[in-house]
Design a protein that fits this description.
Arc Repressor Mutant, subunit A; alpha+beta; Alpha-Beta Plaits
């Protein structure tokens, strides 16, 4: 016999998957797909946010059409004996650089962190890199970078709909 909490979680996950597929649809349209009322979808959306399953609703833009030419992946190995000082400075640094769209501790390739940033052009990226190296030089043991030309051929554009389709197919 199913637990009522499990059923609610299942409905929340179904709603989340619908948002991943296409969050541009109205609550009414999603309600029809899920077989619930529009007010139920509205309440469930609020719950997704309250429970932290969704941090915020946002569009995934075409970065090249927004004027960004470069997506940079930065991998850094830090001198971990200075980890407390690094952690203290990291949050302020990240908040003061809106071009950084993701950063986290990481593991692999001998590195400790990964950061993803967007840049209008190579000159802007180089200014970012110089500023970054000045700020973090004394903490960094090694750094590697991968630059992606956002105007080039993209084999698979950034989207979360692929995850939703995978989850849907696993349930069928």
């Amino acid at each position: 016999m199913g637990n009522r909490s499990d059923v609610k979680k299942g409905k929340l996950m179904s709603l989340l998957l619908e948002y991943l597929r296409d969050s541009n649809r109205s609550d009414r349209q999603i309600a029809k797909v899920l077989g619930v009322s529009q007010p139920t979808v509205s309440r469930m959306r609020s719950r997704l946010l309250e429970e932290g399953l969704v941090r915020h609703f946002s569009a995934i833009p075409d970065f090249a059409k927004m004027g960004y030419e470069i997506m940079a992946f930065s991998f850094v190995k830090f001198n971990m004996e200075q980890v407390t000082e690094i952690e203290e400075k990291t949050k302020e640094w990240m908040q003061s650089h809106p071009e950084i769209i993701f950063s986290s501790r990481a593991e692999g390739m001998g590195m400790d962190t990964v950061t993803v940033s967007l840049h209008k052009n190579y000159a802007e990226y180089m200014n970012f890199l110089i500023e970054n190296k000045k700020k973090w030089r004394k903490f960094m043991a090694e750094a590697q970078y991968i630059l992606v030309d956002l105007g080039g051929d993209v084999a698979k554009p950034l989207s979360f709909k692929y995850l939703a389709e995978k989850r849907k197919n696993r349930r069928d």
